[in-house]
Amino acid sequence: MSSPLPLALSCGDPSGIGPEIAVKAWDALRARLPFVWIGDPRHLPRGTAHREIGDPAEAAHVAASALPVLPLSFAAPARPGDPDPANAAGVIEAIATAVRLVQAGKARAVCTAPIHKKALKDGAGFAYPGHTEYLAALAGVERVVMMLACSELRVVPVTIHIALREVPQALDARLLRDTIRITHQALIDDFGLAAPRLAIAGLNPHAGEGGAMGREEIELITPVLDELRAEGLAIAGPLPADTMFHAQAREGYDAAICMYHDQALIPIKTIDFAGGVNVTLGLPFIRTSPDHGTAYDIAGTGVADPASLIAALKMADEMARMRG
């Protein structure tokens, strides 16, 4: 059996598939990987075997027969597919509660179910682009990194949720340098790689083709990579992104660092759409999440696939064990 300390799973948007896949994940894992679900029990699917607990330490004993629930009172019931702004504050509090538990040593890691940023902004004035930035604020960390991971690929976008036209202006030497260093250290600390190998994508087609298709590789990316190579990091690049992700290329590195969101996420979602995991690197605690959204279109129908959440819980468990 796993450690008596559970994982802490925040409920996400109760109008999405979060409650449903949490129950399916519990049913698949039970006492083999206990977690405590943080949310309003009214939002769980009808007939869910669950038990409210007051101390996360109870989860290891409860999980064999019921979903352990640390109850929060939300303002309104959940309507599948129809987010209620009244519940936004509860969704945010569930995330904060999960972080408090792990900071207090009552949980080993945080796992978060999907949220809908606009719903949180409309209902509670949520001021963050997403989970990643909010978790950084809760932890008091200036810079964190988003990694998407599956068994065959790990990718990191340097810029995340911004318009494509803004990417060249957002890229700078400090951001790129910090992203690479944080990724390198996390591969050592959380994934057990003694000497991580990193592949860095160029920004432009053909990695700029010697300046014919853009000069960011020459003027920005290469100088940063040379600096980090001098520090001893194993780095390849800048590489043409269109040749980095076939099977043979993937054998040559442990993580690919890409310049913008879709450059990183299209390959991993093509390779393993159901099993990808979102990992936040650079936090003082472990955080994972399924690599999908709220799926309002199928919420409440019972067909949602829990594979990504199960993978996220398992990865959080593995990372926690790696950190000791």
From TrEMBL:
Its main location: cytoplasm. It is an enzyme of class 1 (oxidoreductase). Substrate binds at H131, T132, K269, N278, R287. It holds the Pfam family PdxA. It catalyses: 4-(phosphooxy)-L-threonine + NAD(+) = 3-amino-2-oxopropyl phosphate + CO2 + NADH. Its EC number is 1.1.1.262. A divalent metal cation binds at H161, H206, H261. Binds 1 divalent metal cation per subunit. Can use ions such as Zn(2+), Mg(2+) or Co(2+). It comes from the Bacteria. Pathway: Cofactor biosynthesis; pyridoxine 5'-phosphate biosynthesis; pyridoxine 5'-phosphate from D-erythrose 4-phosphate: step 4/5. GO terms for molecular function: 4-hydroxythreonine-4-phosphate dehydrogenase activity. Homodimer. The active site is located at the dimer interface. Catalyzes the NAD(P)-dependent oxidation of 4-(phosphooxy)-L-threonine (HTP) into 2-amino-3-oxo-4-(phosphooxy)butyric acid which spontaneously decarboxylates to form 3-amino-2-oxopropyl phosphate (AHAP). Belongs to the PdxA family. PANTHER family: 4-HYDROXYTHREONINE-4-PHOSPHATE DEHYDROGENASE (PTHR30004), D-THREONATE 4-PHOSPHATE DEHYDROGENASE (PTHR30004:SF6). This is 4-hydroxythreonine-4-phosphate dehydrogenase. It comes from Acidimangrovimonas pyrenivorans. The lineage of its organism: Bacteria, Pseudomonadati, Pseudomonadota, Alphaproteobacteria, Rhodobacterales.
